[in-house]
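Internal ticket #5521
Category: modeling
Description: The requester needs a full-assembly model to guide mutagenesis choices. All entity lines are attached below as received. Residue total reported by intake: 606.
Assigned to: D.W.
Attached entities:
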Amino acid sequence: MRLASGGRIDRTQPLSFRFDGKVYQGVAGDSLASALLANGVKLFGRSFKYHRPRGLLAAGVEEPNALVELRSGPRHEPNVRATVAELYDGLEANSQNRWPSLAFDVSGINDVFSPFLGAGFYYKTFMGPTRGSWHFYERIIRKAAGLGTAPALPDPDRYEKTNAHCDLLVVGAGAAGLAAALVAARAGVKVMLVEQDKDLGGALLGEKSEQLDEWVAATVGELANSPNVRLLTRATAFGYYDHNVVGLVERVADHLPQPATHQPRQRLWTVRAKQVVLTTGAHERPLLFGNNDLPGVMLAGAVRTYLNRWAVLPGRQPVVFANHDEAYLTAIDLADAGATVAAVVDPRPIANPDLVTALAQRGIEHLPGHVVVKARGGRFINAAEVAALDANGEATEPRRVIICDLLAMSGGWNPAVQLHAQSGGKPRWDQRLSTFVPGESKQAERSAEALKGRADRSSHGGVRRSVGCGGEDRRGDGRVFVKPEVSVVDFQAQGSEGRGVDPPPF
Amino acid sequence: MRLPCPWCGERDHSEFNYGGDATRRRPADDAPMEEWIDYVYFRDNPRGRHHEHWQHIQGCRAWIVIERDTLTHEVSGCWTAEDYARGFAEATDVQKGAQS
């Protein structure tokens, strides 16, 4: 449901849209996913093979479930993530891979037979009576496969290609990217800052702090007014090639019903940069437990983003299940938004005491040394089975059943090392963070500290927020080296007074 | 990939045409047939630094020799074909700036 206040949306601009034939209302600033979630939609699709019900999992590009078809006619587009599709008035979307409807899908019977449907089972099952029979079966199987339908009419839009050269390309306009671009811009470096979202700020857009918002606004303002800075939003860096050549796709008009007469639909950029800084941040990873694919199970950071960015409450009786401190902020924000958080389940024996106090102040039960063993529910979650862990880390009996309509879970963060890997760098396993972090660079490229896991989002000691930046630039070999230092401030939960962070030390 | 042309500077590889192995030496006219067969049909496939011909067709149209690591694509030298053929006498060597 939509909260009465807050969020980076404009409630004075309502937008009307259709999903599976039904008309809903959203507001300007919504993504398709946030608008549907605000309207209480729980089912977004069906799984590929077993047609299990699928709900929203994430808030951004990492969404695996909410794949929809947008538009009809020649601009029809399948497999669009609802979390990436921006809402516009008159948008038409349909769910995929279900018949006759999302709520009742005949192919859901596959789930019943799943023990017999191993991978590639059809190659060994549909044999005979003749050798040519396979081609008959294959045509039928092919119809059951795939997600979505391809458009059958010619594409009416134009697509452009262009080139760009710069001294420094910064990929990702989160805290680290903004800081890096700012320091470089002040040093007179020709900077290109690209961000795949429509707004700059990255993970900071899911925060609720006025100081952070002010810092972002001031930084973006200064960058926009710098003549040596080129800012691109809605632009995804999709490939890193030899000699610091990076490919971007800029979605010029995807967020509009159709492009303006002078506009291309999308633009391909070939950027040749002397130096590249990757500040692509991290993706949250899930936890493993039974039925963790039920609608109503969402990533904790995504739940917080829906709360703070789009003022959407994904559930009224949530349970939070996580093994790190940052997810506690989700529980706190949920409670402050009016939800009744049944419990915070944490396999660790201890957590940040300030956060635990904040939970107690809101009447949220804290269950350290416990895990969620199973999510219960048919088409959406209605309860979580929780068990205590013994000394060996095994789940014990008896299991406790906690009624819930939302399970916000998080297993930590994986740095987005894809572009680093494409550049030739080899990601290296970090045992403490349990994830791959950027390894040695093979090209003139470097990754931000957060990407390296050092702005520790899964720390045990506390939740860190980067909030300011200083920097120094030194020249060598005719190249400018820019080393922004993003200052990291420990987060202290301050109860109901709200969260304060120290002003940036410029 | 960015390739350096001694006349035009660093350019995109799409401006060039690949010309093959530059380390081949044309045998004398009366050399034995085995040498000629080697020269015409056989090539080495080195892993690592390699000298190769490129022609800057969309620029100065000069034939140049580039030293490129076939594994990492790192470009470490370029000469005009004439200088290279003369055994690097007065060769011009463009510093590669793209690789750190």
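Resolution: model delivered.
Comment from assignee: Strands of chain B lie at 2-5, 9-12, 17-21, 49-55, 63-69, 75-80.
Ticket closed.
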